[in-house]
Fold:
Amino acid sequence: MTNTMKKLTALLMAAVMMLSLAACGKDDGNKDAGKDNGSNVSDTDKKGDDNKGDAALSEEDYKAKITEIGTKVGELTEDVTAAQTKAQTDPQGALKDLTATVNEMKPLYQELADLKAPEKFTDAQVKIKNGSDASVEILDMTLEMMEMAADPEKAAEAADKVTELQAKMTEYSAKVTELQEGLTEVLGA
Structure:
C-alpha cells in the first residue's frame, strides 16, 4: 500500500504542479497589467461584479483578474510543494493536504474559464477556457483518485485511475500549453 500511495501522491502532485505553473507562470513582470491600455471604460462602469451578466470586462479589469487568479494559484503551489515533502513520511497526510489544495484550486480554474474577455482578447480567452476546462477535468480526476486512495479497499481502483490519468497526461499537457499561450497573449499585450 505504501508504494501505491507514494506513486499516486507523486502523480497527483505532478498534475497539480503542471496546472499551477500554467496559471501562475505568466503573471511575473505584469504587475502593471491594469495600467493604461487604451480602455475607454470609466471607473463608475467598472464597480459592479466582474462576471455579472454577459458584459465583457474592460481590458484593465480582465488582465487584473487573470493576474489575481494566477497569484492565488501560485500561492497554492506552495501547499503542493509542502505536501510533496510530507508524502515522503506521511503519504495519507499528504493526500489529505493535497485534497484541500485541489478543492481550493478548482474554482479558480473555473473562474478563469468563465471570464468575459474584451473583444481584443476573444481568441486568447478561447485558449484559456480550453486549458482551464481541461485543468478542471484533471482536478476532478485527481480528487476522485485521492478519495479512492484514502480507502484501502479501493487501492486497485485508485491504481487503475492513476494509469488512466497517466495515459491522458499527454492530451492534458497540450491543453495546458494552450492555456499558457492564451495567458501569454493577454498578459504580454
Remarks:
- The two ends are 49 Å apart (CA to CA).
- Confidence is low (pLDDT under 50) at residues 26-52.
- The CA atoms of residues 31 and 130 lie 25 Å apart.
